Amino acid sequence: AGIMSGRELVRFFGGGAFLPVLFLLPLLLFGCFFLLLGAGRRYGSFGGLLQSLFGRWARAVRLLFLVGSFIVLAATAAGIDALAPSFAPWISLLTAAACFFIVKKGMNGVKLLHSVLVPCVAAYLIFSLFSEGRFNFAFSSENAGMDTLFCLLYVAMNFFLCAPVAVDLGGTLVGKGYAALCAGLAAVAVAFLAALILSAVAAADGAAERVMPLVYVIGRGRLFPLIVFFGSVTGFASAYYPLHKAAENCKKKDAVRLVLLAAASCLARCGLDRIVQTVYPALGVFGILFLTSVVLDGNFFQKHHQKIHHARQQAENDGRRHDEV
After folding, report:
1. pLDDT at position 282, please?
2. Nearest alpha carbon to residue 121 among 253, 240, 20, 3
3. 51 SS3 class
4. Which of 218, 198, 163, 190 is nearest to 49 (CA)?
5. How far apart are CA 179 and CA 169, in angstroms?
6. pLDDT per position as a tens digit, 61-76
7. Cα–Cα distance between 224 and 125 in angstroms, integer?
8. How many Cβ atoms sit within 10 Å of the Cβ of residue 240?
9. At residue 14, does pLDDT exceed 80?
10. DSSP letters of 52-104?
């Protein structure tokens, strides 16, 4: 849902010549989504994953994730207010209040919200873009290296930001095949929408410089900003979920949650463009580090430990000393 404004995509892919790296996007997204869902099935929860990866440093890493979620929460609130500046910050505050009660239902509330809104938002977005009928699928390899780097940062940023929700969701899924199906559908949908949005922004002069490029492309009619709002609500709920969960052990947990929502609304006064331009690439760097940790834990170290254990067992069975294996 974070792609609905178009600002996030323009930050990482620019306003044109984006098509080559978009071929990488669904493959990278599938790998990341499948890895997170698989981690959820393996460890049961995001907290379990962090404890396994970082041990005594798990709390510090969790704090880093919470800071990232808080920043995205503020950016989403800024995007919501940018849809109707004359009513800011009341629209984002009402959204915060609604998400407060939805997320109190736990993962079931988040899943229900996404299940209802995301398909409707995506369908209307596709319909609106094709109704406009203006696309520019630019193709250029002049900056292939930097374009690929920013594509990796974009994927890593989403890996970092959606990890708390995706891992907990993976803990509720049954079977690796279902996890692969969910990861595949999500990756294809995001990549397809990204290609359409970027091509529409590239075809409209001056759209890339706008705070809400996609709203500028399709127009500020009554309906489309409302659709963008509903898409932003799902992003708001996903960003708020780990913060809501982290406050569970506080004595006055609801008060802490409301203070966090109010603080995010204050940070949102910095504006969507400024937050996305400065902070999101840094979150992508953190995402690459976290992705590397998950890959190493799930593959190299597990296989390495199994190999050592197998060699030790074989040595004992053969009556040989372990250091001779």
Report:
1. 86
2. 3
3. helix
4. 163
5. 10
6. 999 999 999 998 998 8
7. 8
8. 27
9. no
10. HHHGGGHHHHHHHHHHHHHHHHHHHHHHHHHHSGGGTTHHHHHHHHHHHHHHT
Q: For 101-119, what is each residue's pLDDT tens digit?
A: 999 998 889 889 988 988 8
Cα(80)–Cα(276) distance, rounded to whole angstroms?
14
Has this prediction a pTM greater than 0.85?
no
Q: Is the pLDDT of residue 303 over 70?
A: no
- State the Cα–Cα distance between residues 236 and 301, nearest whole angstrom: 35
Please report which residue ranges of the chain form alpha helices under DSSP H: 7-13, 19-22, 25-43, 46-54, 58-83, 90-103, 107-132, 144-170, 176-203, 213-218, 223-246, 253-267, 272-295, 302-318
Six-digit token string for 196:
């359409």
Please answer whether residues 34 and 183 qualify as being in contact, where contact means their C-beta atoms are separated by less than 8 angstroms.
yes
Unique residue bearing structure tokens 């009402």: 94
**261 alpha-carbon distance from chain centroid:** 19
CA-wise closest residue to 2 among 145, 132, 138, 165: 165
Instruction: Please name which of 167, 165, 160, 180 lies closest in space to residue 41, comparing C-alpha atoms.
Output: 167
Where residue 250 falls among pLDDT bands split at 50, 70, 90?
confident
What count of other Cβ atoms lies within 10 Å of the Cβ of residue 170? 27
Prior bond of 20 cis (ω within 30°): no
